[in-house]
């Protein structure tokens, strides 16, 4: 096995025969994505795309997290001094990496052991093989910090084949643990965490020129029993309220008008989120149903660009800077969200996102 980066790098690249291995290497930061990781991964993947590499394995150091998201504090701190370009540049290149992985011409296998949230979802959920363990913890919690389930969430979430489930995940930030990830179609396989080294060796030793479907079938021997979906008892309610809601306001008010314990709990949770983020997410997922992979990322870049100028810095301030957990959202309620505000987020911008520019 040959290393192409040093052990001190935030991401390591190895080649084992004809298999490329990407290892996120910031375990103390729960392998959070930062700009150096993104900048290092993209050209390496391009090299492997054009070389004799047969497949790619994506994994992480440490046992706690695959990737807990983007380094959001570093993203937003410059905005307090009026610098929005730094964050925008990160989003642009992060989405380019996500798009690159999602369109990679060779099979990519993501070992999503431990925490996988936000940016960690972006680099894994678009790959064809996503292997969880009993210790996997998935969430897209962005509406609680003034963002939205980005990194291609507008493509991935509405295509989860459980009616309304993607919108439910995106709006509420609901967590999925272990086997629930496979029930919820976040992962394609679930294995025991003590078999991670074994499955990596197995993937390296597989014959060449296998397609993703063939690799997926081959690793079924590692699949463990996933039992019953822990949210099985909630699926009817999720479909009832989240499958075809007419509007965000109507959705929340219908939940609030119910006397059911589940409805009241979900409504209270939604009321605690950024109203702007909820409105963005609602439209993002509704529109994303009928958009191409490319167009979703183009839309999400526009949204992220605007979030840096609106609620995102405030959400991060409340959570990670001042730690008062009392974000001052503006507007303060979903009922106050105007069509003109939403137009500000969704309208086309001259500085459009492109899957490679300015990198190509």
From TrEMBL:
Q: Name one GO biological process term.
A: L-valine catabolic process
> Which Pfam family, any one of them, does this sequence belong to?
ECH_2
Q: Primary place of residence? A: mitochondrion
Q: Which InterPro entries match?
A: ClpP/crotonase-like_dom_sf (IPR029045), ECH_dom (IPR045004), HIBYL-CoA-H (IPR032259)
Q: Catalyses which reaction?
A: 3-hydroxy-2-methylpropanoyl-CoA + H2O = 3-hydroxy-2-methylpropanoate + CoA + H(+)
Give the enzyme class: hydrolase
One of the record's GO cellular component terms: mitochondrion
Q: Which domain of life is it from?
A: Eukaryota
Question: Subcellular location, in the record's words?
Answer: Mitochondrion
User: Might you give the EC number(s) for this enzyme?
Assistant: 3.1.2.4
Pathway noted in the entry: Amino-acid degradation; L-valine degradation
User: What keyword terms does UniProt attach to this protein?
Assistant: Branched-chain amino acid catabolism, Hydrolase, Mitochondrion
The molecular function terms in GO held by this entry are: 3-hydroxyisobutyryl-CoA hydrolase activity
- Which residues does the UniProt record annotate as the domain Enoyl-CoA hydratase/isomerase? 19-346
What family does the Swiss-Prot or TrEMBL record give for this protein? Belongs to the enoyl-CoA hydratase/isomerase family.
Which purpose does this protein serve, as stated in its record?
A: Hydrolyzes 3-hydroxyisobutyryl-CoA (HIBYL-CoA), a saline catabolite. Has high activity toward isobutyryl-CoA. Could be an isobutyryl-CoA dehydrogenase that functions in valine catabolism. Also hydrolyzes 3-hydroxypropanoyl-CoA.
Tell me which NCBIfam families the record gives: PRK05617.1
Please identify the protein, giving its name as recorded: 3-hydroxyisobutyryl-CoA hydrolase, mitochondrial
């Amino acid at each position: 096995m040959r290393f192409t980066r040093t052990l001190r790098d935030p991401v390591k690249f190895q080649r084992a025969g004809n298999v490329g291995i990407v290892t996120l290497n910031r375990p103390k930061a729960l392998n959070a994505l930062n700009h150096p990781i993104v900048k290092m991964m993209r050209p390496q993947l391009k090299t492997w795309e054009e070389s004799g590499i047969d497949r790619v394995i994506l994994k992480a150091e440490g046992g706690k997290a695959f990737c807990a998201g983007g380094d959001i504090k570093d993203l937003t701190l410059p905005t307090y001094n009026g610098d929005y370009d730094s964050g925008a540049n990160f989003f642009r290149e992060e989405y380019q990496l996500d798009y690159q992985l999602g369109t990679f011409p060779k099979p990519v296998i993501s070992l999503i052991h431990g925490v996988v949230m936000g940016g960690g979802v972006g680099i894994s959920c678009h790959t064809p093989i996503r292997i969880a363990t009993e210790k996997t913890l998935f969430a897209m919690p962005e509406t609680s910090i003034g963002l939205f389930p980005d990194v291609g969430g507008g493509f991935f979430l509405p295509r989860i084949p459980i009616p309304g489930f993607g919108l439910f995940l995106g709006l509420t930030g609901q967590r999925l643990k272990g086997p629930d990830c496979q029930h919820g179609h976040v992962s394609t396989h679930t294995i025991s965490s003590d078999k991670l080294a074994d499955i990596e060796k197995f993937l390296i030793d597989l014959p060449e020129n296998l397609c993703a479907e063939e690799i997926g079938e081959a690793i079924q021997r590692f699949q463990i029993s996933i039992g019953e979906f822990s949210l099985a008892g909630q699926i009817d309610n999720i479909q009832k309220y989240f499958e075809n809601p007419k509007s965000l306001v109507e959705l929340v008010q219908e939940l609030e008008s119910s006397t059911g314990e589940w409805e009241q709990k979900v409504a209270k949770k939604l009321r605690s989120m950024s109203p702007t983020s909820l409105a963005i997410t609602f439209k993002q997922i509704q529109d994303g149903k009928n958009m191409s992979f490319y167009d979703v990322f183009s839309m999400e870049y526009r949204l992220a660009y605007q979030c840096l100028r609106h609620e995102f810095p405030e959400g991060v301030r409340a959570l990670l800077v001042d730690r008062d957990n009392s974000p001052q959202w503006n507007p303060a309620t979903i009922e106050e969200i105007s069509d003109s505000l939403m137009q500000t987020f969704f309208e086309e911008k001259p500085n459009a996102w492109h899957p490679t520019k300015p990198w190509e």
